[in-house]
Every structure is written in structure tokens, then in C-alpha cells.
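Quick one, C-alpha cells below:
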């Protein structure tokens, strides 16, 4: 299990729906007629924003009516995009309660509550009531989690055979250590990145086969200057003044290849690693 209190203390913020609407209104958006595109700067909390989400959705060949489990889905920007632009039905799970509350309110405001549901839950203890999904989706959500073996085994269990895991994750680059603070941690105590080769082996061992494995560090860049993070960006709304130091460290981590960004799509094998060995006669 993850430390829910530490996760909520780091990521959580109260009154987020109001803060987001006020920031969007100040930026000239009509908050009474919001679209997923209007919301995108304020609810896609990952490098590359909505275009990175759309890239991953195309890579995973998402289609209408696919059932998607979005793990660590945050405020729901990716989930609402998958519903509104790709026609998917999305169950979002996140450990930060204030994100789940604000995310559900934003989904209702956009009239997407019949296609996107928000639940509080731990990526390391997924409880989906035995349901399996066509897609497990996860974007910039595993960085605080040390036990990657358990994380990806849980993802594979939540997939139907032949279903796909679609992920975007920062991973450890060839130059180490990384420079702090980063978006997800003030110091090394809460950051657990592994190298792409190690991650790939871990996910394969969970019962998945690689369909695509792309280094998107150059295209899925995070904010590279303070000006890239206006008042209505999710990074500014959540991190406030702490963002300047995060942006500076991010520039170094990217330029010096200390952190790389990977988008990958993996298919769950029909017979996963945890299945009992077939019985032999005689
Ligand atoms: C940078 S945000 C990304 C949110 C969302 N995926 C997006 O791209 O907009 C990281 C998210 O991971 C969530 N998270 C961290 N540890 C988690 C855990 N053990 N279980 C579920 N969610 C977790 C945080 O609450 C936060 O919402």
C-alpha cells in the first residue's frame, strides 16, 4: 500500500475547482461553456499537456467505447480527453482526494459524467471489483512509487487478455543523479525513477509485450520557462511559487539527460506470468 497521508499532503490542494475556474475566467475563458480544450492547460498535469495525451491515445489506437482504467488520473484532463475526443468510457483512480473531488465536479460541468467516473484509490491496491479493462492508462503517475513490480502486476491483472497498457512516464536517464526539486518530489526520498531498460523488463515480467516504446523527451517537454506556465496552468495552480525552482531543475534534468520521458504501449499476454502452470497428465 502507498502512504495515502503523504501523497495527499504533497499533491493535495483544497478548493481546486474554484481556483481552476477563477484562473480560467481571468484568462478570458467562458467558464459557463467550458470545453476540454479550454480546460486543458489547467487539468493535464504532465509534460507535453493535451497533445502528449492525444499522441499516446493514437499510439494505443484507442477507439470509441473502449473501457479505460486511468490510474493516478489526477484532475481528469486525460480522462475527459479520452472520453470527449476518442469516445472511451473511463474509470479514473487517484489517491489524492481533493483531485478526485475537483475532477468529478469538472467532469459534471462538462456533461461527461456518463462516460468518466472518479474514485479515490491506490495504484498499488487497485480495487476494481474483478472488472477487467480494454486499456490501463497511466500518465506521469508512478514516480512516487518504489515497488514497480507490484504496480505493473496490478495493471496487468486489471487488463483483459489482449488489452493494452498505455503509459507516459519520466524515467532515469543515462546521467545520474537527478536534480531536485522535481514536480513530484522535493528530494530523493519520494522519487523512484528507474532506467527505461529496467522498466521495460519489469513490465514484460508482469505479463505484457511491447508494441511501442518511444523516447519523447524532446517533444513532451514540461514548462521550460516561467512564461510557459501562466496563472491558469495546472503547474502554477498546484505548485505556486515553488514552480520556479522546479522549472530550473527540469531544464537541467532534460538537457543533461538525467530524466527521459517515455511513451509506451504494451499488450497483456493471453497467459500472464502469474497464471498457474497448466496441469500435465501422467
Ligand atoms: C503529476 S500528477 C498526474 C495526474 C494525471 N495523470 C495527469 O496526467 O494529469 C501525479 C498523480 O499521481 C497520483 N498518485 C501518486 N501516487 C499514487 C498512488 N499510489 N495511487 C494513485 N495515484 C497516485 C497523484 O495523486 C497525482 O494525481
Amino acid at each position: 500500500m502507498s502512504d495515502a497521508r503523504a501523497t495527499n499532503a504533497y499533491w493535495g490542494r483544497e478548493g481546486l475547482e474554484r481556483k481552476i475556474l477563477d484562473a480560467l475566467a481571468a484568462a478570458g475563458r467562458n467558464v459557463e461553456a467550458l470545453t476540454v480544450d479550454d480546460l486543458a492547460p489547467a487539468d493535464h498535469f504532465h509534460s507535453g499537456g493535451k497533445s502528449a495525451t492525444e499522441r499516446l491515445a493514437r499510439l494505443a489506437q484507442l477507439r470509441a467505447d473502449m473501457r479505460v482504467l486511468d490510474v493516478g488520473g489526477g484532475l481528469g484532463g486525460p480522462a475527459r480527453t479520452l472520453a470527449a475526443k476518442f469516445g472511451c468510457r473511463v474509470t479514473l483512480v487517484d489517491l489524492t482526494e481533493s483531485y478526485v473531488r475537483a475532477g468529478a465536479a469538472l467532469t459534471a460541468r462538462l456533461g461527461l459524467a456518463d462516460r468518466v467516473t472518479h474514485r479515490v484509490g491506490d495504484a498499488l491496491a487497485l480495487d476494481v471489483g474483478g472488472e477487467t479493462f480494454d486499456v490501463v492508462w497511466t500518465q506521469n503517475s508512478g514516480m512516487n512509487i518504489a515497488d514497480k513490480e507490484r504496480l505493473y502486476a496490478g495493471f496487468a491483472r486489471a487488463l483483459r487478455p489482449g488489452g493494452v497498457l498505455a503509459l507516459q512516464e519520466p524515467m532515469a536517464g543515462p546521467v545520474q543523479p537527478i536534480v531536485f526539486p522535481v514536480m513530484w518530489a522535493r528530494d530523493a526520498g519520494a522519487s523512484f525513477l528507474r532506467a527505461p531498460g529496467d522498466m521495460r523488463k519489469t513490465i514484460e515480467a508482469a505479463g505484457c509485450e511491447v508494441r511501442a516504446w518511444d523516447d519523447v523527451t524532446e517533444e513532451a517537454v514540461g514548462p521550460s520557462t516561467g512564461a510557459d506556465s501562466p496563472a491558469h496552468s495546472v503547474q502554477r495552480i498546484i505548485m505556486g511559487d515553488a514552480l520556479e525552482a522546479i522549472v530550473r531543475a527540469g531544464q537541467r534534468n532534460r538537457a543533461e539527460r538525467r530524466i527521459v520521458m517515455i511513451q509506451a504501449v504494451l499488450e497483456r499476454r493471453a497467459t500472464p506470468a502469474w497464471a498457474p502452470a497448466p496441469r500435465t497428465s501422467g
